[in-house]
Description:
The first copy, chain A, is α/β, with parallel strands linked by helices.
Amino acid sequence: xxxxxxxxxxxxxxxxxxxxxxxxKNRYAYKHLGENKTLLMVFFNSSLRTRLSTQKAxxxxxxxxxxxxxxxxxxxxxxxxxxxxxxxxxxxLLEAIPVMGCYCDIIGVRAFAQFENKQDDYEEKILNQxxxxxxxxxxxxxxxxxxxxxxxxxxITIEEYKKTERPKVVLTWAxxxxxxxxxxxxxxxxxxNEADVDFVITHPEGYELGSQFVRGAKxxxxxxxxxxxxxxxxxxxxxxxxxxxxxxxxxxxxxxxxSTEKMALTNNAYFMHCLPVRRNMIVTxxxxxxxxxxxxxxxxxxxxxxxTVIKRILENL
Amino acid sequence: xxxxxxxxxxxxxxxxxxxxxxxxKNRYAYKHLGENKTLLMVFFNSSLRTRLSTQKAxxxxxxxxxxxxxxxxxxxxxxxxxxxxxxxxxxxLLEAIPVMGCYCDIIGVRAFAQFENKQDDYEEKILNQxxxxxxxxxxxxxxxxxxxxxxxxxxITIEEYKKTERPKVVLTWAxxxxxxxxxxxxxxxxxxNEADVDFVITHPEGYELGSQFVRGAKxxxxxxxxxxxxxxxxxxxxxxxxxxxxxxxxxxxxxxxxSTEKMALTNNAYFMHCLPVRRNMIVTxxxxxxxxxxxxxxxxxxxxxxxTVIKRILENL
Amino acid sequence: xxxxxxxxxxxxxxxxxxxxxxxxKNRYAYKHLGENKTLLMVFFNSSLRTRLSTQKAxxxxxxxxxxxxxxxxxxxxxxxxxxxxxxxxxxxLLEAIPVMGCYCDIIGVRAFAQFENKQDDYEEKILNQxxxxxxxxxxxxxxxxxxxxxxxxxxITIEEYKKTERPKVVLTWAxxxxxxxxxxxxxxxxxxNEADVDFVITHPEGYELGSQFVRGAKxxxxxxxxxxxxxxxxxxxxxxxxxxxxxxxxxxxxxxxxSTEKMALTNNAYFMHCLPVRRNMIVTxxxxxxxxxxxxxxxxxxxxxxxTVIKRILENL
Lengths: 317, 317, 317
């Protein structure tokens, strides 16, 4: 593997999950792979899980790890070519990226959608410049349109908890006070569409996701109907994707909050969320604290998805 | 050891100091203990000594170390249950804490008193949530009411410098421009009351510390009398503890500043302070730069106290 | 080597470059040197290259590395003696420096010129306090008047790319929107004056550098004349050094920007810059993206210059 940005980079998905579960049993078995190798983690945005789990994954593999927070102790970066740089930005990405590539063997990048320009976001302008100019293998630690380490961890978690061969998995929109990118639901759909599950997406009208991610998935605008018989409820907020409302909040309707009543519609489903989660907006205290909530084991699998991806990149260096 | 928040967690105090002094002689002798173990250091507040010395202690023990500054590159955390999280706080401690626990073997936590609610501070609300919810051994890197790594380092230092079997140790309040927590004097009293020393506390009226820390210690409101014959002078500012003045500054009287004249009252005492110290408020330039000032060896022992604590936790994993 | 602040600390310069090129071929050959040794990197200012390359260099040598950003998660530091510290600065450098020295074996320091007081800057007040009070070997990661890791990397790069025994190297001033220190041009001159090159400096009148760095170098006020026949063009902005204009911007004349037309005057010269660079102020997009631009390999050599310096310090511990 040279790049990790979406489900296709994993190839055979069943094999990838199997490899992840093997790694989970013995996470220090591959320490030789990372000897004298350096992982650079570049953050343009805040992070808790990704910061810790990816660093841990690199260390499990014997790597040296370096964390770089752009905007904290580094220089502000220009991203446009042709600009006369007489403002507050000290360095251009076109220099900064290959420079970062000089001092490491693998680069992880976090660069959220900025909601200023849909085309820039959906062309993954920053992530793709890293892929093009860094000279090193690059993996996404959540970019503008996808969060494939999260979705891979989600799939591992579903594999661990499922009670039937082909569980019903429902991705449901839920309300939130701020406009959030579509990266998590995009990647979750990207993965579920390739996995052996019965996948349904539910959200208010106007919140349709990009067809490149939704593909053939069933869309059900009535949340209660969608939740009926679900084995896994995956809640997430996102801002509108479709024009002319890209990046806008169309609803904060707390009737979509996942509550005990909503969970009662399901087949005793497990509750999932990528975290961080706004309690009593996305989900009530009762549901997230219930035995059916598997948000913590789901988060714990972030270490495993990251380690599987980095291991494969190391094997291919 | 599973938790380290106060002197009792060390058990036999003489044995703990002896172990610390053994570690100091050969600090790389226990590197095998930390192999494939990860230390996570979580800071809700600023830190220099604790940041460096605890990281160094973990590395001495062969651990992987990860530093997380909440409020810098992570998410803002909600601490109250039941809140509808539609404000600026993105994540709840009730998720963040077990998530942090997923990616490490031991957690150090720094969370100062906030002086907003005495009960919250003195119940160690944040530290205790880490102990309760992280699923991993937790040690205090200075919490609301105690700084036991500092007090342990102080005791080690007194053991190294004392000239008599049972030295006189004076904890003296000193002026400071800002309201400071009682964590350091609390823990110092907590330790001195269990150590083989003649312990006296001096401060202006109104600055009484909590009785759970002071216990039977002698309180002398006349600083000059307290300093008479002292072998060690331990200066520190703190804000008022007793109601209704909790968290308030009652005095900035520089007559309490430790000066050459004050030190002349002692038995050629050593001067100690946990640092950071405000010069010419707490102590004059002359005293802190004098040969009797042992603030630097005291700070150096922070590495040793941290390593002793982490070693014991590792041995108990 | 105990201290690294200027070219003289390297001794025989040809031998140093030779050693660097050997290290570059096999950068993990000296991992035993750094075992159980800790590198502390202290930043008073922003950093990308230095942060990453020096950390990488320490790791290549098997060291534990700790990064400390003063002003981010540490305490604000007072630098003047005698101050009554009742303001916003919590700790004095006179305590903070020896404390930092307690927890490491080698210290790298970044502390830029502040342009408040020329004498303070040119006496290297902060760097020299680290040298005097830390008790540990100190190297400059760019201080007020010099950036010797950069200049050493520059010399290594010139050695790798030169086509003639004694190339013509031109240091040219270029425009920039903000007042920048003289550290980089000072050190570049310091190194070039000791290297086997034909060294010319060009800048507008009023931008003369300190004679301790310029020494016998040729100064040519006409940029076009200076560039004629150049093998290497080293562009850099700096603010005025000479009184009464110390720290001031005297010109933002973009006629000094390095463009294709300017490069056409040279002997097909390589373009160099220490980065970060303001595109279309210092240099046009065309020139910095041309095959003659060697800014990235130059940056990559920062790892090598740092590793050579740290290796020599380790060998001398």
